[in-house]
Design a protein that fits this description.
The complex is a heterodimer of chains A (about 325) and B (about 270). With about 325 residues, chain A is α/β, with parallel strands linked by helices. Chain A is about 30% helix and about 25% strand. Chain B has helices at about 1-5, 10-25, 30, 65-100, 100-115, 120-130, 135-160, 165-175, 175-185, 190-215, 225-235, 240-270. The longest helix of chain B has about 35 residues, at about 65-100. The two termini of chain B are about 15 Å apart. The chains are: A alpha/beta (about 325), B mainly alpha (about 270).
């Protein structure tokens, strides 16, 4: 793995204004609040967390499908958060997204050849025959048969549809792929196929993944590094080995203890968190996790912990990291 | 593919046949008509149907059969073109408004609401009073009156479609707004649009007849189904047959459009297969 940074995200923030009406200025949802991380070339960084913690919003901000409120996204040294629309469009083919829902992510009126070939339309100097060959090659790469070429998405199963989504993204020859829970809508047997497909394509094409998921078993399988997110902020970021062996943040520990394991002799003590995730409309003062944290102390309620380096490559946002 | 499916839809075929008959009637009116639709015959006023006058005659002794045949020209012309005007304006307004959103969307849709708050006929009368009654103004007036319905339907569909992930995917590929609107959003709006268009074709035929009744539709001696029917209403108690045939013509045309609309919706939406 080369150590070239392909993506560097700093203080990325997205506030949504909701319930705005004639009579009120509305309320602010802090969906993503000051997230920083970087992604190396050829690396898979997983973003894990509960529903609604801002994982998907982060993914969309990274690709600038939505504009950030604050912060920067440096893609190969260039801040794309502030790039004019026409220059951004030229860069878009290099960064693609694979979606969670293989039903709403494919236009029901288009055929396979139109869906996969859509991105080729903008590439100059391709003849019709060349385009067809590229589409058929890509179909083979993701495991679709040539006779699928003229079919509509509704004629496929969930796994096949997800392969279609993968093909649409990868035919652009991207360097960076954001995979937004690409497996959670699929059966377990199909998940394995798609996860292996993603792993193989990464190896063959030299991709970097930002892999958004809440399934820790898959995350453990596919990631190089893992970032844990809670209520719009990163709680912990470390290599897979570090994080699974020794989670330092109480939230990470609780989250990992909730994941079922099939390995004998890897019995874990469950840490049961009480209460619900607070609303991002009104996140708690101090550390965002203090309302549910088993080891919270007075300073956690007052002071927001910094996201700091605890050990080489191991970032934690906690005043009282575990085993520290 | 589309035609194969469509031809296998019996209901749609009945609709197509009915509409084809109407179009045939309009196209070959001079051949099909037995009399001059404008010729007054004082000797044969308000007659029952007979071998000479198949549908009978009106108060001026004009042949109702020939008038109904020629009337299809005006009725079809007005309904088709007014719906075309409304669809074109409605799609343009609704798609822009829904896709870009913001304050512009707010202002545009409030204007549409204001237009819609007027009863359709009243508004059409108002527009015609300003523009003056003639055929193209009737088309324009009805087109403007029906525009908000199309704008609303398209805007509603666009609002939900623009959040779909295939739209985001297209954006991620690097496509511009125009491409996304025309390739991804509008094709997925066709089902509600077709339903609205067929219903509006029917409304437009009815609206045209109401306007004709009020003297704002087709200028008097020219026959339209509307004014034949309105003329006949005065004599309904004496000669009911006078109202039956123009009424039947209107019913058949409306039915035909509705059947075709339903069939098209079934065929065009691949998910309903």
């Amino acid at each position: 793995m080369s150590l070239k940074t392909i993506l560097k995200v700093e203080d990325l923030t997205k506030y949504f204004v909701v319930n705005r009406s004639l009579f009120s200025a509305g309320e602010v949802v802090k969906a993503v609040d000051g997230v920083s991380f970087s992604l190396m070339q050829g690396e898979t960084l997983s973003l894990v967390g509960e529903s609604g913690c801002g994982k998907s919003t982060t993914g969309r901000l990274v690709l600038r499908l939505i504009d950030p409120t604050r912060g920067s996204v440096h893609y190969q040294g260039q801040d794309i958060a502030r790039l004019p629309a026409d220059k951004m469009r030229k860069l878009r083919s290099q960064m693609q997204i694979i979606f969670q829902d293989p039903w709403s992510s494919l236009n029901p009126r288009m055929t396979v050849k139109e869906i996969i070939g859509e991105g080729l339309r903008r590439q100059p100097g391709l003849s019709r025959a060349q385009r067809k060959k590229m589409v058929l090659d890509m179909m083979e790469t993701v495991g679709l048969r040539p006779e699928h070429y003229d079919r509509h998405p509704h004629e496929f199963s969930g796994g096949q549809r997800q392969r279609l989504g993968v093909a649409r993204a990868l035919i652009m020859r991207p360097k960076l792929v954001v995979a937004d829970e690409p497996l959670s809508a699929l059966d377990v047997s199909v998940q394995a196929q798609v996860v292996n497909l993603l792993a193989r394509l990464k190896r063959d094409l030299g991709l970097s993944y930002l892999f958004i998921s809440h399934d820790l078993a898959i995350v453990e399988h596919i990631s190089d590094r893992i970032a844990v997110m809670y209520l719009g902020k990163l709680m912990e970021l470390a290599s897979k080995r570090q994080l699974f062996a020794q989670p330092r943040h109480p939230y990470t520990q609780a989250l990992f203890s909730a994941a079922p394991t099939t390995e004998v002799g890897r019995e874990k003590k469950r840490i049961i968190l009480t209460g619900d995730v607070p609303s991002p409309l009104n996140p708690p003062k101090g550390c965002r996790f203090h309302t549910r944290c088993p080891v919270a102390q007075e300073d956690c309620r007052q002071l927001e912990p910094e996201f700091k380096l605890l050990a080489p490559g191991h970032w934690v946002a906690c005043h009282h990291p575990i085993n520290g | 593919m589309f035609w194969k499916k469509f031809l296998h839809n019996p209901i749609g075929m009945i609709g197509v046949i009915v509409i084809a008959m109407n179009i045939f009637m309009a196209a070959f009116a001079p051949v099909l008509a037995t009399h001059n639709p404008l010729a007054i015959n004082v000797a044969q006023q308000s007659e029952e149907p007979s071998a000479q006058h198949w549908f009978g005659t009106d108060e001026f002794g004009r042949d109702i059969y020939s008038r109904v045949i020629y009337g299809s020209r005006i009725s079809l012309y007005i309904s088709l073109f007014s719906v075309l005007v409304a669809t074109f304006l409605g799609v343009a307004i609704g798609a822009t408004s829904g896709y870009y959103g913001g304050w512009m969307d707010n202002i545009i849709m409030r204007i549409m609401d204001a237009v819609m708050s007027f009863p359709a006929i009243l508004l059409a009368i108002g527009i015609l009073a300003v523009l003056g009654p003639n055929l193209s103004n009737v088309v324009l007036a009805l087109g403007l009156v029906y525009t908000p319905r199309f704008a609303r339907i398209v805007r509603g569909s666009v609002l939900s479609l623009k959040e779909k992930e295939f739209v985001e995917a297209s954006k991620a590929i690097g496509n511009g707004d125009a491409f996304i609107i025309f390739r991804h959003i509008l094709p997925n709006c066709t089902a509600p649009l077709i339903v609205q268009a067929t219903a509006s074709l029917a409304y437009a035929i009815l609206a045209e007849s109401m306007l004709s009744f009020l003297g704002l539709g087709a200028p008097p001696p020219a026959p339209s189904w509307g004014n034949i029917l309105s003329d006949a209403r005065n004599f309904m108690m004496d000669n009911a047959m006078m109202t039956v045939f123009p009424g039947l013509a209107i019913t058949m045309a409306v039915l035909g459009f509705n059947l075709v609309g339903d069939a098209l919706r079934d065929v065009l939406d691949p998910r309903l297969k």
